Structure formats: structure tokens, C-alpha cells
Amino acid sequence: METMNIPRKVTVKLRYYPKDYVQEFMAEAVSFLLRNAPVEQLIKGVRKIMLEAVKKPLLMRKSGVSALFYYAMRGTSSRLIRCCLGCEVFPYGSVPLKIYLLDGDIDLTVLCSSNVEEALASDVHAVLKGERQNENAEFEVKNVQFNIIVEVKPVKCLVKDIVIDISFNQLGGLSTLCFLKQVDRLIGKDHLFKRSIILIKSRCYYESRILGAYHGLISTYALEILVLYIFHLFHSSLDGPLAVGYRFLDYFSKFDWDNYCISLNGSVCKSSLPDIVAELPENG
């Protein structure tokens, strides 16, 4: 058990250090050991790391463990694309922001020149299909899909039954990630913004069944803006996720959705918005 046990014990204080940048650095470093450990030692190492959070269920420990497992899983798809195609791959969305649900996916974006984007998407698809047939692959890759019809051409696959969405040049997604991280730091209170999003997101997804842009429901980003608006209105009285959740339900249950909507700039009258006409695609 030398491969994982000694590094796990040596790094424990740094992996749960109460600074995000330290946790991120250690998670990425230790994830390399996880990905390269023999299977038997990998299973034992994962169990012991999970026990660290179970025995002391502090927020810093939960955050550190989730970051470590995220980098371990992210490394597979990112490394494949980087090594085979020579492109940089970056995470965005709920996972690097640490507000993901158990049923969520991992969003990655490949940065490349816009004039090779479509060809690169085909190359990524081919690389993942090749890995799917590789008997010696680090992780099992399956259900590789490539949607050539939509404007943003994502490549999807499953790695250890986790959905991986690979898009291209999603600078808006990366900017949103940076923006929301800055909001969380500004609000403070032990990551109250993030914790509130997780609570409200869980209720909307598992109980109300209203979350999921893929199914024509509310998107995660829209939900984050709604939560941010609650902080804008009631920040001085919000001391925990339950307080935020109560304000969220109370305020938006009485909101005049027929005539107004919510944006980053606050409440906006619908009549002031330009008329938008949806058109079917040529092949639709």
C-alpha cells in the first residue's frame, strides 16, 4: 500500500488547507498518483480518502475530497486530447465551481483556432472512439457521441459512468466560472453563495423537477443568477443556506413573471426587450 498510503498521510494537511488555491494545487498533484496507482491500491486509496471526510465531515474536507476526485476523472479526457491533438483543455461549469450534483456531468472546453473547430471536433470524436476500443485504457470510455447539427458541436462520452461534455472555444463558460468564483469570494461567509446554490439546485432538480436546459427546463446558469439576485436584495440578513432558500422561494413565488424577468442588472420589464423570432434550422 506504499503507492498511496504514504503520500496520502504526508499531504493530508495541505489537501484540506482552508485556501481554495492550495486545495486545487494539491488535488491536481495527488490525482496524478491516483490515476497511476495499480487498481487494487487505487480502490484502497479512494476508500481511505473518502473516510477522511466521513470521520471529520467539515466543509474543507468535503471540498478537498471532491476536488481530488474531480481532477482524477478530468485528467483522463483532458490528457487524451492534449497528448493526441496538442490542444489545451479547460474545465468550466458546476464541477470546477464545486456546486455539482451527483447526477451532473463534467464540462470541458478545448481552445483552438475557430477555423479548425469543426475538424478538431471530428478528431476528438475519433480519439475517444479509439480509446473506447483500447483494452488497456486507464478508464473505460463508452457511448461516444458527436452532434454535428447544432451550432456548438459537443462531443459526449461516458467515463466510469460519468457524462463528459467536450465543447470548443466556450470562452463564455470560462468567463462565467471566473465571475461566479469572484462572487463567492466577495460574499464570503464560508462559501455561502456556493452552499446556497447546491441546496436550491438540489430541490429544483430532485424535487421540483424544473432544472435541466437539455430538456427545455431552467438552466443552471439561470438558477445561479436568480440566487445571486436574492443576495443582492437581502445580503445583510442571509446567514445560512436555509435562509437563502427561504428568501428564494418567498420572493420568486410572488414575482410578476408575466411582465418582468431577472437579469444580472436586476429586474427587467419584458416589454423593453426586443422581439425574438425563433426559426427552424434548414435541416429541421
From TrEMBL:
Q: Which domain of life is it from?
A: Eukaryota
- Sequence intervals crossing the membrane: 211-231
Chain ranges of the PAP/OAS1 substrate-binding-related domain = 187-283
* The keyword Transmembrane is assigned to this record: yes
Q: Reply yes or no: does the keyword Transmembrane helix apply.
A: yes
Task: Please name one Pfam family that this protein belongs to.
Answer: PAP-OAS1
**What keywords does the record list, in alphabetical order?**
Membrane, Transmembrane, Transmembrane helix
Q: Know the name of this protein?
A: PAP/OAS1 substrate-binding-related domain-containing protein
Organism name:
Vitis vinifera
